[in-house]
Amino acid sequence: MSARRTTYKLRALYASRRARSTSLADGPGYLYAFVDRGRYWKLGMTSNFKRRKAQWDNECPCAHRRWLPPIRVTRRRRAGHLLLEIKSIDRPKRYCPHCRRTHIKIFIFRGQWNWTWRIVIRPLLLRVAVEQSHYAHTADVSRHPDANDNIDIQMSRPQ
Fold it and tell me: Which secondary-structure segment (H or E) carries 84?
């Protein structure tokens, strides 16, 4: 069952979300992403990436999960979800046989997972981080820790 909304509605929601400034309650954290079975993408936000990764791997173990490097941001997970949904081909509600739950914020993209990460997912997450910095007036885009990162990332491998 698909939960994907229309592109028009998503763009309107994103414009509204982007116009909001970060509040004092928003704290620093990390946008993280992983892909299960090379197809199902998940995006999340956490203040402690190592703890959240261990929690996911414990509560919903999947031998085919690949974790990607997190990106430091101020809380902007919702904006990231909207951008991913705009670019995705589907957003299914997916029953997970590993944890026996239904995951709802999962996105599907065309192509190999490593191509999708480099060409679609990572640039979108960086866009959220850079726009957040711009709108919050807290950092110059050129000084953002990930803005000029040309280092080839080390992908985590399934255990």
Answer: helix 77-87
